[in-house]
Fold these 3 entries.
Entry 1:
Amino acid sequence: MIFAVTIFISAFLLFQVQPVIVKYVLPWYGGSPSVWSTGMLFFQVLLLAGYAYAHLIVSKLNQKQQVIVHSILLSLSLLMLPVTPDCALKPTGTEDPVWSIIQLLLITVGMPYVMVSATGPLLQHWYSKTELGKSPYRLYALSNLGSLLGLLTYPFFIEPILNLKNQTVIWSIVYAGFVILSGYSGRLMYKTTRKWEKIPLKNGIQDNPSIRLFDVFLWLCLEATAVVILLAATHYICQDIAVIPFLWILPLGLYLLSFIIAFDSPRWYHRGFWMPLLFLSVGVIFYLLHPKTADVFSIVGVIAIFSFAMFVAVMVCHGEMFRLRPPAKHLTAFYLVISMGGAVGGVLVNFVAPYLFTGWWEFPMGFIFVFLLTGVTVLKRPGGKLRPIIRIGTMVVLTVTAVGMVKVTLDIVRDYNENVEIAKRNFYGILRVYNGETDHVPTKKLYHGGINHGMQFQSSKWKTYPTTYFARWSGVGVALRKHPKKHPELVKGYQGPQHTLKVGIIGLGAGTLSSYSRPGDVYRFYEINPAVFELANEQFTYIKDAKGDIQVVMGDGRISLERELEETGSHQFDVMIVDAFSGDAIPIHLLTVEAILLYLKHLAPDGILAIHVSNRHLCLEPVIEGIANKLGKKFYFFKNGKARAYGVKKSSWVLLTENDTFINHPGVAKYLDTWPQKGSPQVWTDDYSNLINILE
């Protein structure tokens, strides 16, 4: 029982710390989906380190020495508690985000994570030595059950109740208890050292006692493929909604569930059941990946379909892996290779794919490899009483399917890249510049994911014309054109600068808003993605053609504003604009109570805070309403319904201001719209936000 309890707690801690720590540092890196995938890469690598350590001491030390060494290292890991990220580690905006995140996580939680990683396989090995005739692989299923519960309890119990700092402190306290429990387990092992030496090397799995190199290769490839599909599915889901623990946990939880099912017993995985599901899933996924059919389902439907397809694919990978499992004698080596495969999958998604692909093409490629690898395992170890001709026929069908999927993928890639002048993919997402025509005028369009983030007419007559969501009659256009400083005759006793504005903008896009600047104006942009800055300068001319002083600060907007407030005080912006979406994804840390308070501190007394709330999937108006009510601020809704006219898109903006002169101006009042009743007000904080309540 002590084995099972200790393994369960270690697995629980192992996977609960992941959303805790990643959510803590997520705002430091702009809320990008890549923060989670980088975190997953880190945890996969440290899982590999833990498994390698377990395998090493099992191979090189006797049982008594194993207990002593493990107990000492567990005790030393307590020196790293609590696992609360130090604010001194916040990025400045110039570092490589991937390596910065890895360094931060290593300093914060490195050794404790390695120790909880190693405890599972180590205790399973000890179990195989003391409980003859019993499969230790069921303990692996129990371990994954603990991992799953660690994940599921976070969004539903931990996140709503505790703030982030308390989450890290409580995890640290439970970890200290785990160390004590592990020490007690070690004491029991120490007492039975001599008994172990007399026990013959037997186990309940009577397979070939040797490990075949080709089996090792298949273990690694199957797990790497499963992790690629997991991370790619998570990326795809998060880029259209938001980077939040629930959307991380859903696919990761399904991934762990596949381990639980596959490794509990051979009876749960039957090719005759799972392979038809895989064929069905792949067909639907490839249908949705095509740009012409991408919007057929609602976002909830897309999440459900992608999650189901991912689950089926990783279930096949883990089911085939379980068929190839070695005897318990080689258990730690088996887990070591599995963790190595996970690390390889993380490296492929985070380092290789961005250089090879300009889209999330690792997702369909992962499915292709599932078919190819399954074909190999069917030929190698069929399971059941299939005749050779049936085995070969099955392998041929799977291989032909994989080849067909390659062709379909290439067709999808070709359609996505049609009329694309340049495409860039980096840590923050996928950017494309399209050449096209709007209202019979040549245009360039900047897309982040599947969403237009800026457009410029290429004719000299319209080149400086503000387009898309930033039209002259949009909420932000009205704020910049009708601010009282632009019309000082309306302000009694006004003595300040004439006709000049100081504007702060979070999110650069194509630089469209700089077209509103006039001589003497200062427009200060905050942009985290260097590729956006590069494209805005090289492919668009809004910034070059601007008449005002255009400043661009690289780095996360909120962190930069916090730093500037501390170092130089308030900017006293006349207008502050928040428009920093990545595709349709919401950078939640820019829309919390704490964030809005920061923006208000940087506003002049008569300043205007303009927040872009247009979104295909989420109703953001209740969030702004809830925060404004909490802070006692007036808020106004501007909806531009003149889509497509002169390159304009429908847009919704919320303006927070105490400037009654501005709001009551006839040129402003005519653009005001009634507040949309889209649900009860929501108050987001840095510690908790709920997207379920604002889904369209």
Entry 2:
Amino acid sequence: MANVSFKAFARAPKRLLISSIIACGSALLTAHPAAAQNNGNPEGEWRYWGADMSSTRYSPLEQINADNFENLEVAWLWRGDNFSPAPDFIMRSTPIYADGIVYTVAGTRRTVAAIDPATGETLWTFREPYTERWELSPRKNYGRGVAYGELDGRGVIYLVTPGFFLHALDAKTGEPLEGFGGQIPVDGFPETGTVDMLATLGHPYDVFSGIDSERGSITTSSPPLFVDGVLVVGNSAHMGGTYSRVENVPGDVQAFDARTGEHLWTFHTIPREGEFGNDTWENDAWRWSGNVNAWPPLSADADLGIVYLPTDAPTNDYFGGFRPGDNLFGSSLVAVDLRTGERRWHFQMIHHDIWDWDNPVAPILVDVTVDGRAIPAVVQTTKQSFVYAFNRETGEPIWPIPETPVPVGDVPGEWYSPTQPIPSRPLGYELQGLSIDDLIDFTPELRQMAIEQVSDIKLGPIFTPWVNVGNEAQYRATAQCPSATGGTNIPGGTVMDPVTGIMYVASRKACTGGRLGAGAERDDGADRLNQPGVNVVDWMNAGGGGFAAMEGLPIFKPPYGRITAIDMNTGEHLWWIPNGDTPDRIRDHPLLEGIENLQNTGFQGNATALVTKSLLMFAEGRGGRSIWYAVDKVTGERLGAVEIPAPTSTAPMTYMHDGVQYIVLPIAGNGIPGSLVALRLEG
């Protein structure tokens, strides 16, 4: 394995050579060619959130390459601030491109817009009529895009909304699809083209106001997945980090006929009585526990007829004493049958999740060759910075994932799993757990300050449980590394070159001070928007206790964010580079005054990336520099950089239109609201 020091990239010139890597570079690109996959995406298009139904975020286009990358210029800027009651200063949508048109959503209304791919002109829009269900939704501006499908050669756009409706629209006109769904008894809804997804979820509800707050709530964020005439729809829940109630609605996954809107099946993410996995919910907790949502984008293998569901933790994210047991299918990857919704196989990454380490990104499908064996793989990267790799047909791990003893805690009333599954390969790619050796060490004085900072913090390996306020050992908090916002997360995620089997993982080094306070003291009352449910949890997140930073400097060593290249044919790390460059606030920090040749720390964020036939391209992500980078896929060598109007805010995409390759970046910041900017070569 070749290790790339972050010092080498502090101000890397355009043609910097890293001889130790280049010596074997060309072989890496051809050593393990992958078989062609049925990914549902014609060359030059980008029909899915992740480019294809395999969620690779890969394009074979190479009009934009190392020789001309720095000739990119802005082709158009599409602003999203007119699609909400107030300007929305984030853009979470990755647009798609299909049959000559770009599609996105924007704003808290989650308005659909069709956009001319060459000029950025808005061609048509669609906005769902007002309901109280929309008003009460906790994730209104979390829309990550739309889905596209073809029915008898006719393009259709599918939209899921905060109020939990599913819409089907003619891709050319934006008109509701005839014969899809039925009439919604609310003023303003069209006579056709809409499905009320609460009607098939199985909970009492009002069509205008939604589910009663005492029962819980549910919403959506990622687009549906279109596969062979079937729409599979995941969902989202409230932010669990401040959730104070025990009950919520389970995140059951549903499927609908793409032509008619007919409900086809429901997969119960919290198994009901008599279903597989129900016995992992002791205390009859399955009856009233919620969440276990499949909130990231989904992936599918059309040939196998399997959809892959990445799930999150059960209610409550940080305390589960009321739900003893492993809690299937929380924090799992579940393979279900496309036609029936029946479980084919599953793997639980975290038993009884009490760290909010839900699976945050779409699983990636890729064909690899391991020890001479061709394997159809599915790969899940995670917040805890592990890579879990399986045969996507059988669920068999590609490399062993042994159950490993982990620390247990002593929070009153909590139930702890004594083991967790930890992959033997690939190795973790970001800071996991915290020790004194991991603390900042730019100078001896800073190291001593850091040691003093953690003197009353419980340190330990990954899966060290949180402490409660008033614990006997008098710990201020537990160091959780990565935090729930560390490791890999959806703004950047992971991209895969399906030709080589090399995966590029964006990650963020982040820790939190984990501590629990009494729920009764922190519950904010019967606020329907923020706290659905009735019974208050015994313990809930009480904040970090001032841990993890020293006068604005992260307490741990850099790099603060990185991109890691991993060969999924061998499970080996090939190289890593920092996420961009050292931020000015770090470079100019008073505590670092006088330090010469400061190593490149990288930006503490999730790089937003895509990979093409010839390049890995990325930006630093939310709050980072307004720069779009290109690096060599084999070596990590920086090949170029161009300025963009604002930092990126989520994953980018690329397409070919009328012989011209465009790159579209969701951006926000520098006074620019959530918007899309398209880049193309000069001329």
Entry 3:
Amino acid sequence: MLTSKLRSKSNLFLLHRLRTTWVVVLVGTLFSVGIPHAVAMDGDGGVTVKKLKQLSIEDLMEIEVTSVSKRPEKLVETPSAIQVITNEDIRRSGATSIPEALRLAGNLNVAEQNSHDWNISARGFNTDLGNKLLVLIDGRTVYTPLFSGVFWDVQDYLMEDLDRIEVISGPGGTLWGANAVNGVINITTKSAKDTQGVYLDSAAGTELKDAFGVRYGGVIAPGVYFRVYGKYFERDKGDYADGSEAPNSWRMRQGGFRIDSESQPGTTLTFQGDFYSGKEDQEAAGTSDVSGGNLLGRWSRTTSADENTSLQIYYDRTHLAVPKPATNFAAAGILKDDLDTWDLDFQHRARLGERHQFVSGLGYRFTHDVVQNAPSVAFLPARLNRSLFSGFVQDEIKLREDVFLTLGAKLEHNDYTGFETEPNVRLQWNMTPKQMVWSAVSRAVRTPSRIDRDLTEPTGLPAPFPPSILNGGPDFDSETVFAYEMGYRAQLGAKAMVSLAAFYNDYDHIRSTTPGVAGFPTFGFPLTFENNLEGETHGVEFNGTYQLLDHWRLQGSYSLLKESLRVKPGKVDFSNALNETADPENQLSLRSSLDLPSDAEFDAGLRWVDALHNNNGPTPGAVPSYFELDVRIAWHPTRQIELSLVGQNLLHDHHPEYGFPSATREEVGRNIYAKVAWRY
């Protein structure tokens, strides 16, 4: 996990792994036959197969999203390059984790390094230290200030409990702050009211060796609902290019709760928490330990359709213990990091007159980071406290009945670079009730992380050798982008919807690695992080949905990304601007969802990813282009039981999705698993 951030099974085996699943299927089926349908989402029994069917095109366009304006608005009226992954999309995809579910968003690049590490980005800069994408879960920011990215391995929930995932490509700094440079992923879980009764699932297969989830929801008092859940999974070792096993197995367990109160009209209270621990095997580094948890409380008061006030506070703790292997310069050791985060957020939304819809907010975040340094890598100082103050205001102005102008700005103060501003101008024209065009100009920043400022990799060698190989830069400044976007979204009749976006991004002060004094014995070391790169990206993003028949839906997406990153005049970069980009120029995906007779379902997803060229060096085709296919077959023998068989990455025994070509590059293997889900 952190180590990588800083630097085919037999049929008998499959049958053995699936044995437990089929026992659970049999027991669950017999049990469901003999008991009444006690819980009903629609008031007439259990969760019916009809309820599990897909939303209509009209319903999809009417889905309310909150990520773009921090207020509920219909998807058809949202002036942004946004894609929404619904719970139904996740269920029918067979995704077993949040990163897998994010493959459904055509405006993201998702690259799996091994069984527990992913690189995920929007509009470029998808590297080991990818840092330009902000991710939230129920309003809680999950990026780590260690490198301004996301540890995807510890972001987990019961997939059944995810309500939707809103994926915005393009800056979101005005509302969400620093690090929302190229996009925002906002993950929302279901309310406790919508998860009543019992839910059980169990799965087993090849790569996904074993998985189990359980959830129970009930009523504490009138208008007060709760749920508790737990899950466990184990993923098998991956593969090297020659087919041998890579030591990267992964075991995780997680539990949590949520309480929602609607006992007072117009007022909602939410209290929730999650706790996890796991072990991850690492190449040449032993086993890493990960653990943590979070607690969140939110109060919201709605006085009218146009006015709302909310207050949210959360606490988040993460613990990493990562073995660091011995090097030519340093002995083996363990790098430990304990991060505590406290966050307070206040937001108010109100209408002023007939033409102005204001959203404003204030925030404060405090982080306490304690590192136990290893001989081969260290953060200095080892203990660090940081504070972040922020405030924003945004005004949506109705110029006329069908034209809206949005003006907004965010002001932040961090301990590294002081004050940062992130303004936004957005224009929207509703051509018809079902068609809309929009354009936007934004500025966003990526503030320094601990790696940028505080990292050091000691050599352990005496003079005249350099004391370190790589250092953070004491003067490392914020990275910036000016983004220019335009887009079109429409519902074309009752059977089709399309969305198209084009963008141009102008970057400055991008991270570089500057060599030290040249010549023996330093050989240009130590390298120091500086801001010597600049450049541009541009491209287009398309996605569409077509209801071919009442029981057959097709979804497609395409993205084009052009990147040009270079060293500033008079400056230097050790890699000549190649280490900050590892992105496919083209991506294409097509999904088919088909409802079959006898309450059966068939889903298939085909994706094509272009080659990665600039991946840790000037090697063309570092990762060759590839097609990949996922298939899911499901059957509902009763109103409570769902049986499914899922095949992922079916076109290859194993293939790379990221990394520099080497004998130890880990590859993504074919995964076939069976699953049973029971709702009561």
